[in-house]
Queue: 4 jobs
Job 1
Amino acid sequence: MPEPCPAPKRLILYLVKSILGSQAVNRSPVQLKVIRMAAALLQRILPQALAFLWILYMRAFFLAVLLVLPVFAYANSTINMSTPHIDKVLVLKSERTLHLMHRDTVVKSYRVSLGKKSGPKQYEGDKRTPEGIYSINWRKHSDNFNLAMHISYPNADDLKRSEETGLPPGSMIMLHGTPEDEEYPEWFFSSLNWTEGCIALTNPDMEEIWASVKDGTLIEIRP
């Protein structure tokens, strides 16, 4: 095995000696002179050659980047096109189902948990989920329910009923996730209606809705 080159400046001399033979020291004076002349010549042109190769490499690299960027841009636009804009959330209480809608077409559906008592919400603390047309108007990270999106309850009809009955309509109706409880697993919560009037989903489902539904989106809650 040839001995490693001891220094960069002697690289060419080392290579020439290796080509002519490992016993170059036993060559004739003419051969040694040829070696030295070749090494001196190559040492002069080596920096220019390396610089030229570096320029070619960088040009190839930037060309590859320019070619790949449009591919990524097209892929990203394709993903965006394949995920329709959600313009409405529809909740069917009788089916315990939430639909994400785009132009009256269901994009995806989720199972939900509702208030502990059936029927439309009448007053604060009745443990019922409202029915009507609202909007998602703000959101927050919840200590108890992970992610939470606020439903704009009460609406005008709810306020009118409150005036007629003299009972407060309530507030803070949320679309939220599930508590992380060591005693009760997530599937246990999703199997029943357990909320105080909110609409609850599993945490993975809530993460999807959080990402898909923007503030200001209409939400309709039907019986």
Job 2
Amino acid sequence: MPISDYYKHPTHKDGHDSKCKECQKQYQKDHRALQLQNPTWAQEDKEKRKEYRVSNNERFNYLLRRWRKNVKEEVLAAYCNGHVQCARCKFSDPRALTIDHIHGGGTRHRKEIGNHLHEWLRANDYPPGFQVLCMNCQFIKEHEKKEGK
């Protein structure tokens, strides 16, 4: 089958679902029919997922950390035009690089969107008004802003 017969899937290595579109549609139809037959399905499924997470907590946390690290690297690359480094001092260790609100307002913005800035930036197609700074330059920028008041 040609690749166009498969839905895109961002977490799979080849970027496509393992089931073809027709098989996926049939699976969804069958799955929905099962849900309608059992009115308590949603609650049971929620409990099963919670049990799975508790019993596989270490693996779940590992996968979550890996996913967040990948999202952060993608966001940093997007705001650095591929050369991941601090906009001020050119420091390039991604462990110490952060996203900075160029015109301030980061605290207010985080309160509005929650603590998942990298996911928000990616979901909103990397809007302007942000830059990559290392933690030292981020601290210096904040200090300079306070001195200017």
Job 3
Amino acid sequence: MKNPRRNKFVQGSGFRVQGNCPQPRAQNPEHGFSLIELLMASVIMAAAGALLMGGLVAANRGADRRIEQSLMTQTLANRLALLDDQPASINVVHGTDETPLGSIAWEVQWHDMSGVPLTEATVTVTHNDRTTRLVTYRALPAP
């Protein structure tokens, strides 16, 4: 009886057998990632993270600016509500209000307008380096 013919390549052993000399089998490209692929994925993830962080910082700055603007507008409205209908004998009145963001400075200036029976009141609110102004007109008292 003849020897049955054997398969030259042994399956599942990790080695390819040709005759008596075992040789390592070539790695299948679908089994894992190369170092270059991992490096490129890391670079892409780092760039995406940097862009995300930049966007979050800008959003936080914008939110802080809107909060500050809201507090300044509220202070301006408060000063306007407390403004007398008749001009004060003092031309300039100023002070500060305490808020959660610190103190906000305010100032009220009265200006007589020539030729019309009105006076101009300018309310200015300042916090850090931002300033908001409001101008309103009031009737002069009857003589």
Job 4
Amino acid sequence: MLRFKAYGGATNLQKAKIHLEALLQRYPDKASLQSSLAGIYLAEHRFREAVDMARAAVESADPENRAKLNLRLFDVFWAYGKYEEAEQLLRTNKFNRHSFDFLVREARLADKLGNLEKARGNMVLALRECKAYAQSPVVIAWCHTTLAHFEHHSSNPKAVCIVTSRMNSILIKSLSNAFIRIDWFKVRKKH
């Protein structure tokens, strides 16, 4: 699954699915395996199977892991367009309502349900959480992109330009930091 996330190749996804299905034959009630397979089904747009597998993961999980696995189930419902089920899941489960994971999901749901003020507010809070815990520049840029998306929905072109500008500056800083960290002496020796 990591290779698929990194490179996006369908063959990597297929190999991960084969391995997970084989592992589930040996460990049929392992929640982490079920959740990973639900993620693969989701990537393949096999939504019914993804829902079934994500629900099985929640049912198999230890109580301390249920919240995390319910977030996977939320992702499946959201991608499947089952927004009422996704909303009910967020309302009826015990999540840390100030966590980055919760805020982002609630923002995405609010956007889909047409509540742009709530979507923007939650995304701003998620961005603060992200910066407070020194997330990678890629995650921060994703937050800015999502915020720009919400601003675009609100037909506020000035706000979109501001958010996009911030995102570009973050990406430039992260690329320059990566460039600085390269040991150019070693690179020259190899070539």
